[in-house]
Amino acid sequence: MWRFPLPQTVTMSWFVLWGAVSWGQISVGAVSDTKAETTPAGKLYLQLQNVGLDKTRVFQVRGAAIDRGPLHISLDDGTIAFTEDVAGHVTGAFFEGEGEVLVMPPDEVERASLALFTGAAILEEKFITAYFRFDDDTYEELRPLLRPAESAPEFVFQWNETARNLATLDAFRLFLSFTRFLPAGGDMTASPPQAGEKNNRLLHARVQGRDLGAFDVYYDSMGSEQIRVGGFANVKGETFYDLWLAFSTRQHEKAQMASGMEEDPTSEGLRVSSYKLKTEINLPAHLKGEALLQAEVLQGGQRALVFELSRFLQIERVEADGQAVQFVQNPALEGTQLDRRGNDLVALVFPRPLQAGEHMQLRFVYRGDVLSEAGSGLLYVGARGTWYPNRGRTMSNFDLEFQYPEGWTLVATGKRVPTTAGKTTPPGTQSAHWVSERPIPLAGFNLGKYARALSHAGNVPVEIYAASGLERSFSQPAATMLPPPRLSPHGIDPPAGVAQPPAPSPARNAQAVADESARAVDFFARQFGPFPYGSLTISQIPGELSQGWPGLIYLSGLAFLTPEEKGRLNMSPVQETRTRQLMAHEAAHQWWGDLINWRSYHDQWLMEALSEYSSLMLLESESPNSFRELMDQYREDLLKKNKDGSPLMDAGPVTLGIRLSSSRFPLGYEGISYERGAWLFHILRSMMRDGERAPGPPAKAGATEPFIRALRKILDRYAGKSITTAEFLRVCEEELPPSLWYEGHKSLAWFYQGWINGTAIPRLELHGVKYADSASSTVISGTILQKDAPNDLVTSVPVYATAGGKNVLIGRVFADGAETGFRLKAAAGARKAVLDPNHTVLARIQ
To answer: Which of 189, 591, 676, 807 is most buried, by the most CB atoms less than 10 A from its CB?
Structure first.
């Protein structure tokens, strides 16, 4: 959906995973004229954010340990000072001395991820200092092993400022734990929080390792993955937060299995059924908004709900059913994915615990300079964050009203409907109204001075809105020196001239883009089913990146360039093809990502890879050679090495999602999710298609290929819902031809384990091939060697033989491990066995 590594929104569990913490100042209040310090929520948050060390709680500690499932922290010998009370509870400590942290990853994927950043498959690191933050009974656990320390004031003097600075890291997460115990009224301490409740435990250690430097270790019982380990890294001035490990504890997994339900992190205790957004836009950048949300509480007991909103928008007021609600607007930690999206977190604090099943109307009022002006009549929100309060990609209905300046065109998600009769707008402004046709995961808009072009995909209108020029930052091709014309053999040549090519104009090429877009929509509708919305609007945005919304696509200005204009930019043929693919990729997201959602970050690759491969299927239907060149380029990209000599494929499997983008591989998410992901679907589609050609019952007349049948089933069953990778494969297994039943099982577990959850690009070789002829056939036997791959990798390899001057498929062989023998029957006289001549396996064929 997005030609950049991160989505516009994420699930609420992912907020916590990537550091839903504060850094700097905050905004807290109940109404716009209420000071933060006067509200119970404001007091609580500020105390958690600024807590220092307590001079009366400094101890010597020896032989102590903190255990949280697979996380073991030992305090071998040193001094520890605990923090001052917050609401009657100790929430942190600072340790100096000799300690060790030990974490054993549960599987090969996490061991490889850890080794990528630390060089070892097990985290076993000695540390000299550690700052701890917790919301449980850690202090009480350690008390029996504590002895009074000498020089307590000196220790506090040395480390107190450091502790106060680090207190901001977990203030927001602790605030979410403690808010449920805030009183309905009166003094905050009237009902102190019982922070040791076992169903809500947080332990965060920021340690200074002897070899690895500073890094974080988390145990969070409320996270979708309870164990997390990571640290900051800086590459060429850009800050990354590398997540080394993230996994669930066995206790959590057992509890989940016992409940019989798969966890859906997109709900997180609240379902928003509808958004009504009223938005005023004042040039050049200001947005004023009012959001009305109809919500249902799914999980009771909590006092706080978290939303995401652009850091450039400040909340003025929040109400629940007409009553003012306290809130905390919390800046994201520098370098985290939330920070890089331009968003902050907003916590609403209710006067009582919420009850499961109750309905409420939430009202937000906010404003700020969130728009960016890029020149050539282009305004956009872009990387400046989410323009309305939201809780991630949950399916909701949207009603969008806009007031904006005359002379500009605004396009938005949904169907445009007439504005309210009799409604007036201030002089110099106009209004517009859009309503979603079905529940959608998010809403967007774009504003510009556009020219319009129209095409149709069947009965679906496809509208293009393009500006007269590209953004100011677009690099113009250099002027060309023209040789002087020759007047005569004896004449004097005039001076050479300078030819400045005309500036690119997306508007000039808008109709061609409209027609191309319509062809893509028509192709996808024939493959997958009807277009999910009544129309498709495509608007130009600045930059090289594109983004898809339901019924609305933000398309990079590069996609509007003519072939001649692209040629002046010295694009290679593959680069030019990739630019053409932008529009088709985003159009495919109308099915994959908008109609169907992903369940967690481990499944996000499905939507990106399906959209990418859908666009490649269109390319293949129009230009098989260009398709082959692009797939070959994707393979070479995965093999390309970084500055450390590591190939991109080592960034990890597609299931690591946005964790793939790291200091080691800044573009890892895009390279793996898009390019390896597309290859995975090409492998799956090709082997299912080949498998149906194998001996057995003939395919039904007019039947589509099995992979496409599986995709249609998925769209039918999961429209308006989220899907996991396991669920996707289960549907594919329904269409799996018998010849592809590995070891007699109708299962794609081998494909998940080795290919989806793996990283290898094996080398395949034929060895010892023999031909045994008979009157009616030739039996070809030999061995397939699989090199540069794990010993347990299973690959479905197509084997061809030359017969009648053509390569003919004689069967598929499951190459299992380093060597696999085969024996296949071919037409009489067949010779020259070859592996995968059509390049359907992500491998290097020798």
So the answer is: 676
